[in-house]
Amino acid sequence: MLLHFSVSYDPPPPPTRLLGKATIALRNVVHASPGTPLDYELGLLDAADSPTVGTLKLVVSYTPPAGAKTGGGGGMGAMAARTAGATSTLADGISPMPDGGGEGMPGMPQQRNRDRLSNVKTSFQVRVRVVEGRQLLGSNMCPVSRVTLNGQTRQTRVHKGTNAPWFDEIFFFQAEILPSELFEKFLEFKCEVGMAYDQAEHAILNRWLVLADPAEATSTVQGYLKVSVVVLGPGDMCPDMSAQHNTQDDVEANLLWSAGVYLQPATFVLSVYCAQNLPQMDAGTMQTLKEVLGVGTPCKELVDPYLVASYAGREVQTKILYTNENPEFRQNLHIGFLFPSMCNVIKIVIKDWDRVGEDDVIGTATIPISAISAPGVDGYLPTFGPSWVNVYGTRRERELLEGDASKKMNKGEDEGCAYRGRVLLALHTNVGTYPPAPTTAIDNNDFNKVRRFRGTRKFVVLCHLSAVWLLESAEKPVEVEVSLGNFGNKLENKMLPSPSSTHPANPVFDGCK
Questions:
Q1: C-alpha closest to that of 332 among 279, 386, 252, 374
Q2: Across-strand partners of 328?
Q3: For the segment 373-383, what is each residue's pLDDT rounded down to a tens digit?
Q4: Contact 211, 232 (CB under 8 A)
Q5: Is the dihedral of CA 79, 85, 88, 89 positive or negative?
Q6: What are the counts of helices (DSSP H) followed by strands (DSSP E) for the chain?
Q7: Which residues pair with 317 in a beta bridge?
Q8: Which of 65, 79, 224, 410 is least surrounded by Cβ atoms within 10 Å, i.e. has the fewest?
Q9: pLDDT in tens, 266-295
């Protein structure tokens, strides 16, 4: 059985707002010696069962009724339970759950990094890097960020006309103070300095802060701010605090928010109808030999595709359709997340299933959330399609040994240089609940409604090429090819021939180096 606790704020005008909740297992209390007080320090969870920075300290004891048998808990279990309160969760570190498990079971005490320092005046340097802000509420904004510590305030540059500023500024705070005093002081966003010191390398690196207005009773999310905080004592080395434009940090495990701030559960429903024009991914050596000898069955499509959609660190994939270059997936992918989210990109990756080794990436596409939604009272939730989304990567010609450059283009790490197919997608958003299942089937009636998007018409594209400059020296003649999708690609053998390339010509040296 579990004992549940909730901490709420009851302002004069209702309704009551939940600040946090926690649970402990009663078996730990019953098995202790009768009347023994057990100290707990529990990390509080919000309404969505996500960790907050708040903690709840309490003392629990159990007195059995007269004549009842006790659990005989005078041994090691009771001693561990009594001392469990020496370590907190989010106040002493940023672990998502208490040390004893998800039910609030007490664990053995751990020594914090700050406890190893002698309590004498010591020189400390606190470095705070303000990286970027996202999803800031408002229009015609000129955002600026201020950091305050120990009476010292630093301010970033003012960015005009944006709700997604890129600051990338670092501030230094010097202090010669008792460690016990410094670690109890608050940074203005607010957290104990000791919380950063207790982390690995004494640093909080590239974490997203959930911004809220303390004057509002509902604690509506006002945006996100990405920061890094490092606390350096004598002899400490500073870790890498460099900031980059990448999506690896845009995961919900990187969020930090205070008690009382509520993020709503939400779901992206991504309808994946079908894909077309996927390239061959398997070598097919034996199939080619059979064609030469004139034996065997007709050539199959040497690709086993499936689609992976990811957002804010969550990932869902479709079923695998074997030997099919034009697959019909007919599936809805449900991606749960916390709304509003700091992540601004839905990543679409089409992969080829491989019986041996790692699955190959066919191509990658991204859907920016800011392009399919609008903030404010007159705005709308992310909505998209049905529409075709092209995926790009390396050249379509099959390489037996794929190089690093080709892999990076297929994964979307570098800009793709060739068309690798397209997929028909639609997206809508539901706010208020998490998805009951990761995937569901698309109804036949809904699938038939999008057949009109799969129709094609014939067009003629005229392109005039006059000259090409700044070419590197070439040992062989050079030709220029103009293609639109697979049309115009003379190496594509799955369509009617439509070559559109210039005649081979040797580059002419113009006398310039």
A1: 386
A2: 274
A3: 887 778 899 99
A4: no
A5: positive
A6: 7, 22
A7: 308
A8: 65
A9: 999 999 999 998 888 765 544 444 444 455
Q: Where are the beta strands (DSSP E) in 277-344?
A: 305-311, 314-317, 328-339
- Name residue, tokens 């991914």: 281
For residue 372, CA distances in Å to 38, 268, 279, 355, 450 come to 53, 13, 29, 37, 20
Whether 31 contacts 25, CB under 8 Å: no
* Beta bridge partners of residue 274, listed in sequence order: 328, 424
The two tokens of residue 19 are 């600040």
Give me the DSSP letters along 438-500: SEEEPPHHHHHHTGGGG---------------SPPP-SS-B--B--BTTBT-TT--SS-----
**Rounded distance, CA 392 to CA 423, Å?**
11
CA dihedral 279, 285, 289, 292 (to 10 degrees): 30
For the ranges 94-103, 402-411, 438-447, 458-467, which has the lowest average pLDDT? Answer: 94-103
Helix (H) or strand (E) holding 408: helix 404-411
Rounded distance, CA 336 to CA 315, Å?
A: 9
Are 330 and 447 contacting, i.e. CB atoms less than 8 angstroms apart?
yes
> The tokens of 504 are what?
């081979």
In the chain, % of residues over pLDDT 70:
76
Closest CA to 346 of 405, 389, 404, 378: 389
- The C-alpha atoms of residue 149 and residue 153 are separated, in whole angstroms, by 7
Q: Count CB neighbours of 281 within 10 A.
A: 22
When pLDDT is cut at 50, 70 and 90, the band that residue 440 belongs to is very high
Identify the residue with better confidence: 403 or 311: 311
Token pair listed for 259? 């008690």
- Residue 435, preceding bond cis, omega within 30 degrees? no
- Per-residue b or e along 7-31, where b marks 16 or more CB atoms closer than 10 Å to that residue's CB: eeeeeeeeeebbbbbbbbbeebbeb
DSSP codes joined into one string, 247-311? STT-SGGGEE--TT---EEEEEEEEEEEEE-PPP-S--HHHHHHHHHT-SSPPPP---EEEEEEE
Q: Contact at 8 Å (CB) between 47 and 89?
A: no
**Which pTM value belongs to this model?**
0.65
The CA-to-CA distance between both ends of the chain, in Å, stands at 81
DSSP-based three-state secondary structure for 195: helix
Task: Judge contact between 119 and 183, C-beta under 8 A.
Answer: no
Other C-beta atoms closer than 10 Å to the C-beta of 314 total 17
Token pair belonging to 460: 């003629």
Count of residues making up the chain: 513
Largest Cα–Cα distance in the chain?
106
Q: Give exposure, 115-153, as e/b (b: 16+ Cβ within 10 Å).
A: eebeeeeeebebbbbbbbbbbbeeeebebebebbbbeee
CB 337 within 8 A of CB 252: yes
Domains and CATH numbers, the chain: 2-110 (no CATH), 115-256 (2.60.40.150), 264-454 (2.60.40.150), 458-513 (no CATH)
